[in-house]
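Dear support,

We are seeing what looks like truncated structure output for some complexes. This example has two components. We would appreciate it if you could run it in full and send us the complete token output so we can diff it against ours.
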Amino acid sequence: MSHTGSGAAATAVRPGRQAGRSAPPPDPAPRPRRRLDLTGALSPWLFLAPALTIFALFKFWPMAQAVAMSLHEVRPYLGDRWVGLDNYTQVLTDEDFLSAIGHTAVLAVGQTGGSILLGMALALLLEGSAKHLWVVRTAVFLPTVVAMAVVAEVWRILYYPAPDGTVNTVLGWLGMGPSQFLNSQDSSLLSVMAVGIWRGAPYDMMIFLAGLAGVDRNLYEAAAVDGASVARRLWHVTFPALRPVFAILFTLAAIRGLRVFTEIFLLTNGGPNGATEVMMTLIYKLGLERGELGVAAAGSMLLLAATVLLTLVVRLLRSRAERKVA
Amino acid sequence: MASGFDSALGFTARRGPLALLVKTIVYGLLVIVFAGPLLALMIGAFTKVNDPTSLVSGGGFTLDNFTRAFDRGVLGYLANSFIVVGGGLLLQIAVSVSASYSLARKTFPLMKLVFLLVLSTMMLPEEVLAIPLSLVLSRVNLTGTLLGMIIPVGAWAFSILVMTEFMKEIPVELEEAARLDGAGDLRVFWSVVLPLCRPALGVVGIFGFTMIWDQYLLPLLVATDAQQFTLPLALRTLRSDEQVGIGVLLAAALLALLPSVLAFIAMQRQFMRGLTSGAVKG
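Here is the complete output from our reference environment:
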């Protein structure tokens, strides 16, 4: 479809090339055309210009700057000094950065795994065409639509660390002790992670639902006729069909986890005592509060490398898996 | 028999009082866990709360939180948010429709490269580029202006890709007919392709809206003082303001929450379509 579309559009631009096609109707009335026409080689570029300009200014220029800055000691008014890979070694040996990298990894893994598992469970529970299911799905999906800043404020209140705080009250009913949540070094990272899962799982659920809709119902029936239990049916029919969905969700969620900023910034701002400091909050503080732009840029580059690497690895695994199937 | 497999679990098809009870409990729990906190926020904004431990503390109905929030300049922040999301969305739609027209309906040298560049911006999240981005923003004199929050969100690879996929499906014959009538690129774009894109415009519009409304880091980098704060940014200031009670914070949070929730509910169908077209096609 795509080939016919763009190919024909190109021939239509230059009518002379249509000679090979079946009976091109001649243009009987030559009139003063193309006054407002941007035809020609330039036209596609004019349509692309706004997008490319914005990307160039706010994506590629900062990108180039980041690369340059990461190799320099940035000194405003004094001129930058070339330091080679020093910034990178500083990032990779600095204790704060190492623990931030650790927290980022834990958070990315926990949030990714948590939202995929919970999203899968939600999708299985809420699959179906009944009207009430649609209502429940909409309600469950709300956290994903609401701005992160609002989510963070709500959860700060829910997490209120006194025994009569909302979540602590619920924990009390379940016979579990009050937790300090965001205020304690032991629980703060987990608390942030829970918010991430709460907001991420419904998104994953929707993608899973789309995947589940594509599973051949006859396979379920065949499995049931063969006497397969629900668990076996899921394992042998549903999960294999969802494999590409898993791969996509894994990439998306992991990247989301790596670049997490807003929720940490608003929930704990890296505290208590650095227990939730992640790459992005540390980079923000280093760059914009302490003015160590070079080191911050080097940190950003490492983060970028991690996301790109992750994307490529998943792509590779996916194409290999597809080849094996085919 | 076939109806027994409406879903993978066969969960919805099961009947009987026990199944109904289990379903009701499960669905109820899910709604409480996921929508409950937001619902509590909405109720809390209209009740006399000043208890930091809970969203709702049973005081009577009041609009006091809102009037006090307005005293704190919340309407101004809200106006900023609307300017940013309105301007950003208009720009984003115009930019992606225009770029997609080239990518979907034309072939030209370096097309593959352009496509790759557009895709690659998805791997350059603004979080990762935050530090140099803030320098660039000040270099082009956008720091301290709402325009600085509008222009960078004007081009978004997701919108361009969704739009491009959609435009590829428009039959060539329509375009050829217009060209035979002497229509040029602009005319084909404006009178033939664009009117047919309305469903895709819905998808791009709703996603662009949510994305821009959710922006936090970009406004944080751009704003130089509270005058330019968007409502999400202002929440943090309100929270740390000792004289502002929790009720005022809830009222402001409700105002920050409502537009995206209303937009989502109004355009849910388009949202779902966009979710899967953007994600599953990768």
